[in-house]
Amino acid sequence: MIHSAGLLLYRLDQDEVEVLIAHMGGPYWSNKEAGAWSIPKGEYEPDAEAAQDAAAREFREELGIDSPPPPYAELGTFPYSSGKRVTVFVADGAGVSLDDVVFGEFEMEWPPRSGKRQSFPEVDRVEWVPLETARERLVKGQRPALDALRTAIDAL
């Protein structure tokens, strides 16, 4: 089973909840919007690393900036239809600046079956968006994290 961990930052903007999401990089996602965004996250080995540590590490690797300092609240672990499971943590991102964002990169064969390898950014954009906009943009498996966030905020 593949395990991922991510960090969902939120902030209140004039009584509206906004979350920080990232558009996935690479040629497959370049012309897509709906279902092409993600919480900054990545894979980890549960026997070697705590999920919360992995979430903070992946945030830094994907966006090139530090995440807010812990503690983080765990929103839950959400299964994808592929069988992958993503554990999502939440933190107040009100003080996070996006001015120094530098996206991490990955390498892949492109075009397919060409034998050529190219580098692409892991994400190519990052934005603060209202919850409902995030629901339209996020990959399907991450949308339940937005419901968990809304429930947690309503309980405050």
From TrEMBL:
Pfam families: NUDIX. PANTHER family: DIADENOSINE 5,5-P1,P4-TETRAPHOSPHATE PYROPHOSPHOHYDROLASE MUTT, NUDIX HYDROLASE DOMAIN-CONTAINING PROTEIN. PROSITE patterns: NUDIX. This is NUDIX domain-containing protein. One of its GO terms (biological process) is AMP biosynthetic process. Transmembrane segments: none annotated. GO terms for molecular function: bis(5'-nucleosyl)-tetraphosphatase (asymmetrical) activity. Residues 1-151 form the Nudix hydrolase domain. It comes from Microbacterium caowuchunii.
